[in-house]
Design goal:
This protein is α+β, with helices and mostly antiparallel strands. It is about 30% helix and about 25% strand. The two termini are about 40 Å apart. Bound molecules: zinc ion. The site of zinc ion has 5 residues, from helix 4.
């Protein structure tokens, strides 16, 4: 027996991880955004440790919930043009009306049904499966990073923590949101604002028109809303873009007062604005503040969400490379514009973003979420082809 033969020399190449098996495992671990993603992130770490040179987990708190971001790296020959895959570990809450157990992946022959199958545990399964196929003795051309964050379906805190911690330049950024492997290279900006108005309560028998205009929070809110709707009609309705569609505003929530026979001492309403890429977010915030304060000077305004638009040129290297990859694999895909806001709005400062993922956009955030099996397989091949070439 030749004792000097190290075992590693005889080691078989690592068996590739099957994306279907991975997805089944991922879906079985609940990571809905109202709870901690701890169990899921540590499962991912366990798997990625065998594939990547570096895997790190960063913990932080949101209210009293422990959340975790994961960063993994495979070193390439060059660190000048890193390829960064961005994904989120959380899902929406399952809600009612599922016909199957949301945490038990169901195979109906064509699709996998389960919570997060499309958004976006399928993407993570496909990518990790592709990474496991890489020849460990051969370095890829460029550094490859996997940034998986928490709270994407919540307030986006996970992405903000990543941005505080890391910095990149000239990156090729793949946002793995569901597009059925089509390419999305732009999105609208998104702005959420809460307007809070104070009044002064008194019995309704003791009020008057003059008092209501001055002290009834609902009357004051009504004045602001009329102004906002007027602007929507006169200006926003005329802002249209061939690709992006309309610049829109929605007032979708209002709450105020206590009884019909009291003057309302408070009122809050919420605005959701979607902006075309040529509209400036800061200017828009300023404009809305001016409008609100000139209608009612003692309102207070809180920005609940601020997400940038993005636009990557069709001529950019990132897009050209992805198009070439799709052609090579004989996948007939197109450019699409899904209406959802994505974290590309945060990460665009590191480089060119493209949204591509295997999930089906129509199936997400509702019961019986599913992913096409063929789409998951294709995504694995797209990732493999992209990182091994
Ligand atoms: Zn998503």
């Amino acid at each position: 027996l030749n004792q000097s033969t190290p075992l590693e020399n005889k080691k078989m190449p690592m068996k590739k991880l099957d994306s279907f098996d991975l997805l089944k495992k991922f879906v079985s671990v609940n990571s809905s955004t109202d709870s901690s993603n701890e169990e899921f992130v540590f499962l991912l770490e366990n798997i990625l440790e065998k594939i990547c040179q570096q895997v790190e987990i960063f913990g932080f708190k949101k209210d009293s919930i422990n959340l975790f971001n994961l960063v993994a790296k495979i070193e390439g020959k060059s660190n000048n043009y890193p390829t960064i895959f961005i994904g989120h570990t959380d899902t929406v809450q399952a809600g009612n009306n599922w016909r199957t157990d949301p945490l038990k992946l169901k195979d109906d022959g064509k699709n996998f049904i389960g919570l997060g199958a499309s958004d976006m545990k399928g993407s993570l399964a496909g990518l990790i499966s592709a990474l496991s196929r890489l020849d460990k003795k051969k370095k890829p051309e460029n550094d490859i990073y996997l940034l998986l964050d928490a709270d994407e379906e919540g307030s986006g805190l996970g992405a903000k923590k990543l941005l505080e911690k890391l910095n990149f330049k000239n990156a090729q950024i793949i946002i793995m949101e569901p597009t059925e492997n089509n390419l999305q290279i732009f999105q609208k900006a998104c702005l959420g604002m809460n307007i809070v108005i104070k009044g002064e309560a008194r019995h309704s028998s003791l009020t008057s028109y003059k008092n209501n205009i001055k002290n009834n929070a609902i009357y004051k809110a009504n004045k602001i809303i009329s102004e906002l709707v007027g602007y929507e009609k006169e200006i926003l309705d005329k802002k249209k873009d061939r690709i992006f569609g309309e610049s829109s505003q929605n007032i979708g929530f209002i709450k105020g007062g206590l009884h019909g026979n009291s003057v309302a001492d408070d009122c809050i309403f919420k605005i959701d604005r979607r902006l075309l890429p040529y509209e400036n977010l800061d200017e828009e915030i300023k404009r809305i503040k001016n409008l609100v304060f000139s209608a009612n000077s003692d309102s207070s305004i809180e920005i609940s969400f601020r997400g940038e638009s993005f636009r990557t040129a069709k001529q950019s290297d990132s897009v050209k490379e992805l198009k070439k990859t799709l052609q090579k694999l004989n996948l007939k895909k197109k450019f699409v514009l899904n209406p959802f806001w994505t974290e590309a709005g945060f990460f665009k400062k590191w480089g060119d973003c493209v949204i591509i993922g295997p999930g089906t956009p129509d199936s997400i955030h509702k019961p019986d979420e599913f992913i096409k099996k063929s789409s998951l397989e294709d995504f694995e091949n797209i990732c493999y082809s992209l990182i091994s070439s």
